[in-house]
Specification:
There is one protein chain. Strand 6, helix 7 and strand 7 form a beta-alpha-beta unit. Helix 1 crosses helix 5 and helix 6 runs parallel beside helix 7. This protein is α+β, with helices and mostly antiparallel strands. Helix content is 43%, strand content 19%. The protein folds into two domains: 104 residues, Orthogonal Bundle (Arc Repressor Mutant, subunit A); 172 residues, Endonuclease Chain A (Endonuclease, Chain A). The radius of gyration is 31 Å and the shape is elongated. The chain has a nine-stranded mixed β-sheet with strand order 5-4-11-10-9-6-7-8-12, with helices on both faces. Strands 1-3-2 form a three-stranded antiparallel β-sheet.
Length: 283
């Protein structure tokens, strides 16, 4: 059952009523009111609404029925509890003021699934896979569904971790998907670049639709610790803690989300801006 202040806020919102006006009407004279008088004052409140308002106020302890059982319900005297009535109206106002923001929130098209890496030895935690998507499997699914573009930004890569998604990335390249990877450590001999070369082949990367960027400032300082993957301009993004490393794909606890909707599109725009300020290392 909804709380009285929520019920009253929804009633006020639907019937365009002002809670502070109700405080005046329900305060009555000497903390006493008669329903029959309320229903005939020039308040613009219908008889049915008044019945609902009085029922809500009674459930909140803001009014109570006086022992006047010999009269019809509308003519009986009701006693007002000023403290409870004021609390009801104040809480109703707070909820009523928040309704526009709540409507905007629930009208958004945001959809998400939680992603997680849970090591095999943590058997009890693996029970959460009934609600979570496995990080590695989810990344492969998202890459396999990419139709136009794939942007991957991770600070750390190793061959074993990259191998978890390399076949699906190669499949995307074969389909003509533009693949951009933003990462650190692309100087010759560093782990990230060696892993990329190991997977995609020596001595060169694919040239037609494969792009490699280094996320650094002009002075060479790495600027990104984010782990983000976006496909098709933000149709879906992964945001989380997992790198493309063996540990992140299998051995350590990682958590993130696969996100769709307008927020995913904003993340992709942010990602593309980072890309535009990162030095291109290939081709």
């Amino acid at each position: 059952m909804a709380k009285p202040e929520l019920e009253l806020a929804l009633l006020c919102e639907e019937a365009n009523l002002v809670p502070e006006d109700l405080l005046i009407y329900l305060s009555g004279s000497d903390n006493k009111i008669r329903p029959v008088e309320l229903m005939f004052i020039e308040s613009g409140i219908s008889r049915e609404n008044w019945k609902d308002i009085l029922a809500i106020a009674e459930s909140a302890g803001a009014i109570s029925e006086h022992a006047d059982v010999g009269k019809p319900p509308d003519e009986r005297v009701l006693l007002t509890n000023p403290e409870n009535l004021k609390k009801l109206i104040n809480n109703t106002r707070l909820i009523l003021d928040s309704i526009p923001d709540l409507k905007r929130l629930y009208r958004q098209d945001i959809q998400y699934r939680v992603a997680a890496t849970i090591p095999e030895r943590l058997i009890k935690l693996q029970d959460f896979f009934y609600a979570f998507e496995n990080t590695s499997l989810g990344l492969r699914r998202m890459v396999a569904e990419a139709e136009k573009s794939l942007t991957i930004m991770v600070p750390f890569i190793d061959a074993e971790g990259l191998n978890e998604v390399s076949d699906t990335i190669k499949g995307a390249l074969d389909r003509g998907v533009l693949v951009s990877i933003l990462t650190r450590g692309l100087a010759k001999g560093e782990r990230n670049v060696e892993a990329l070369l190991d997977i995609f082949g020596e001595p060169h990367f694919p040239t037609s639709n494969f792009f490699l960027y280094e996320t650094v400032f002009e002075d060479g300082y790495p600027i990104s610790h984010a782990k983000v993957v976006s496909c098709d301009g933000g149709k879906e993004v992964y945001v989380g803690s997992a790198n493309l490393t063996a540990a992140s794909m299998d051995r350590t606890i990682e958590i993130g989300v696969f996100l769709q909707g307008s927020q995913a599109e904003h993340i992709d725009k942010f990602l593309q801006l980072v890309l535009s300020h990162s030095p291109q290392r290939w081709p």
